Amino acid sequence: MEPRQKLINSVDVCVDEALCGLVRASGGLSLMGGGHRVLLRSDLNLLRGKVALLSGGGSGHEPAHGGFLGEGMLSAAVAGGVFASPPPASILAAILCLHNAGASGVLLIVKNYTGDRLNFGLAAEQARNHGVDVDMVIVADDCAFNQPSKAGRRGLCGTIFIHKLAGALAEEGCSLVQIVSKVTEALKGIGTLGVSLSPCSVPGCLPSFDLPPGDMEIGWVRKGGEMEEEKRWKWIHGEPGIKRSKVASADEVVKTMIDHMTNTDSQSHLPLKSGDSVVVCVNNLGALSCLEMAVVTRATIICLESRGLVVARVMSGSFMTSLEMAGVSLSVMTVDQETLRLFDAKTSAPAWPNLSSVCVSGRSFITEAPEMSPRPQDHTHSEGPLSPVMRKALVRVCTTLLEKQEELNALDRASGDGDCGNTHAQAAKAIQEWLQDHVVPGCPGQLLSVLAGLVQEKMGGSSGALYSLFLTAAAGHVTEGQSNGAAWATAMHAGTQAMKKYGGADVGDRTMLDALCPAVDELMKLKTAPPGGQVAVLQSAVKKASLGAESTLHLTAMAGRASYIAAERVSLPDPGAVAVATIMRAVMETLEEEKKK
Question: N- or C-end of the chain: fewer Cβ atoms within 10 A?
Answer without folding.
Answer: C
